[in-house]
Amino acid sequence: MKPTDQADSTDAPRPSVRIWVDADACPIAIKEILFRTAKRLEIETILVANQSVSIPSSELIKRITVRDGADVADDRIVELMQPLDVVITGDIPLASRVVDKGGVAIGTRGELFDDASVHGRLASRNLMEQFRSAGVETSGPKPLTNKDVQTFANQLDRMLTRMIRRSAKAR
């Protein structure tokens, strides 16, 4: 055992909650918050993408590279995540699948996707997709602002606190 792997009786157990990141479209500012959070709270954080993504050197931060294809990264996240895990994604269909499996999803602007909100958001997204298919021009997402990044950081902190507490009670 390496010295850094040894724990004395005063060390708190590492939370069983994990953070999963749909990393292909995740903004750098959001990844940086996730990396700091992983180290601060000692939470395993896994970035899943269909291309190589850079990560800092840490036993807590990992990456999974999947083959190219529609929803391959999403499928891998849903396959590997557990109830109470937190998934970071801007993909509403993935967020819906995460919630259906007992997790919580947070959008890169801090939107909470939980059982109370995700299905309405999915219906709105599907309606907008129908409009686009019919030739109606819709606007794309606005650029990420500093306020969005702060909102994300706050939401991440709230959700991780909640999920870590639930995880501790479930043990």
Structural overview:
This protein has 171 residues and is of the alpha/beta class. Helices cover 43% and strands 13% of the residues. The protein has helices spanning 28-41, 72-80, 92-100, 118-133, 146-170, and strands at residues 19-22, 45-49, 61-65, 86-88, 104-106, 112-113. A six-stranded mixed sheet has the order 3-2-1-4-5-6, with helices on both faces. β4, α3 and β5 form a beta-alpha-beta unit. α1 (28-41) packs parallel to α5 and α3 packs antiparallel against α4. The longest helix is centred in the C-terminal third of the chain and has 25 residues, at 146-170. It is globular. The relative contact order is 0.15. Mean pLDDT is 85; it is low at 1-10.
Specify the structural class: alpha/beta
Quote the beta fraction. 5-15%
Number of helices: 5
Q: How many strands appear in the DSSP assignment?
A: 6
